[in-house]
């Protein structure tokens, strides 16, 4: 192995949420996203020797993941035998949309900018979360993203309620600062 | 418990209530006290508005993470693959 240290045992803790979020905004299905993340980790293991350490580990994994997502779309399209085409119903002028259903805004017609912003948001947040101390990040994720109630978290992590609120408060303060710098 | 009947609360208390309201965990009386505090405390107003913004961002569907079980599944799968490689 080359001199660059890679520790696959830590991958799940460090990168799985980031990679998962990256995937879920692109494939919209939890199970597929999870499979893709898993495949990415496997592929990463296989080509660990080729990792030159030019980029950060996360960037390297993301670049693998991108290929996996593209392959995924290729596969499902070849199964159907054709590429998916989305048509805008209102394209033939005023008279075309006589039916009121056809006049409703097309949900696929969201502006690209809007989508782009939301895609980046998830990554920005996970970026900020990954800068928190491990304990804070864990509690904050459980409470905010997974929506567990206070009692469940307290039992699972063996802390008191006031303890939890202090952790949450610290996490929120540093997250807000981080997001203010990078997002607002 | 005499503390509970004070109308003016400290910044610490206010921040705590503010955190709780983000998860709908605060009681009405606590929320009233928080709002009274916000009337005259600029620092807490700033904290509160930032906190609200953060919550709003977190609730967008684009922000997601793996559940505990899913993570464990990934971990065991990766472990197995690791053993193959060694």
Structure, explained:
The complex is a heterodimer of chains A (184) and B (86). With 184 residues, chain A is mainly alpha-helical. Chain A is built from eight helices and no strands. Chain A is globular, with a radius of gyration of 21 Å. With 86 residues, chain B is mainly alpha-helical. Chain B has helices at residues 11-22, 28-40, 42-58, 68-85. In chain B, helix 1 (11-22) crosses helix 2 (28-40) and helix 2 (28-40) crosses helix 3. The relative contact order of chain B is 0.10.
Class by SSE composition of chain A: mainly alpha
Rounded to the nearest angstrom, the distance between the terminal CA atoms of chain A is: 43 Å
- Helix count of chain A, per DSSP? 8
- Fraction in helix of chain B: 55-70%
Gross geometry of chain A = globular
Distance between the termini of chain B: 62 Å
How would the blueprint of this fold be written?
The complex is a heterodimer of chains A (184) and B (86).
Chain A: H1 11-27, H2 30-46, H3 57-80, H4 100-103, H5 112-129, H6 134-145, H7 150-157, H8 161-182
Helix pairs in contact in A: 1-2, 1-3, 1-5, 2-3, 5-8, 6-8
Chain B: H1 11-22, H2 28-40, H3 42-58, H4 68-85
Helix pairs in contact in B: 1-2, 1-3, 2-3
Pick out its properties.
heterodimer; A: 184 residues; mainly alpha; 8 helices; 66% helix; 0% strand; globular; B: 86 residues; 4 helices; elongated
Please provide a brief summary of the model.
Chain A has 184 residues and is mostly helical.
């Amino acid at each position: 192995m080359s001199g660059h240290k890679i520790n696959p045992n830590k991958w799940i803790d460090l990168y799985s949420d980031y990679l998962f979020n990256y995937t879920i905004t692109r494939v919209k299905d939890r199970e597929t996203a999870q499979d893709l993340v898993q495949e990415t980790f496997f592929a990463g293991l296989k080509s660990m020797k080729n990792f030159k350490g030019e980029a950060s580990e996360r960037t390297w994994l993301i670049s693998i993941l991108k290929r996996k997502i593209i392959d995924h779309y290729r596969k499902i399209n070849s199964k159907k035998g054709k590429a998916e085409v989305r048509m805008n119903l209102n394209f033939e002028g005023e008279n075309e949309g006589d039916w009121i259903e056809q006049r409703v805004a097309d949900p696929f017609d969201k502006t690209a900018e809007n989508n782009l912003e939301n895609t980046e948001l998830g990554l920005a947040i996970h970026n900020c979360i990954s800068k928190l101390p491990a304990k804070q990040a864990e509690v904050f994720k459980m409470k905010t993203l997974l929506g567990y109630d206070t009692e469940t978290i307290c039992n699972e992590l063996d802390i008191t309620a006031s303890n939890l609120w202090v952790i949450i408060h610290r996490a929120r303060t540093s997250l807000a600062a981080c997001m203010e710098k990078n997002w607002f | 418990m005499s503390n509970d009947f004070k109308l003016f609360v400290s910044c610490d208390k206010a921040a705590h209530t503010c955190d709780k309201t983000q998860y709908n965990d605060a009681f009405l009386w606590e929320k009233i006290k928080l709002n009274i505090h916000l009337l005259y405390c600029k620092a807490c107003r700033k904290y509160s508005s930032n906190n609200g913004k953060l919550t709003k961002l977190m609730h967008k569907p684009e922000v997601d993470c793996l559940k505990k079980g899913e993570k464990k599944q990934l971990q065991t799968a990766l472990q197995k693959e690791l053993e193959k490689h060694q």
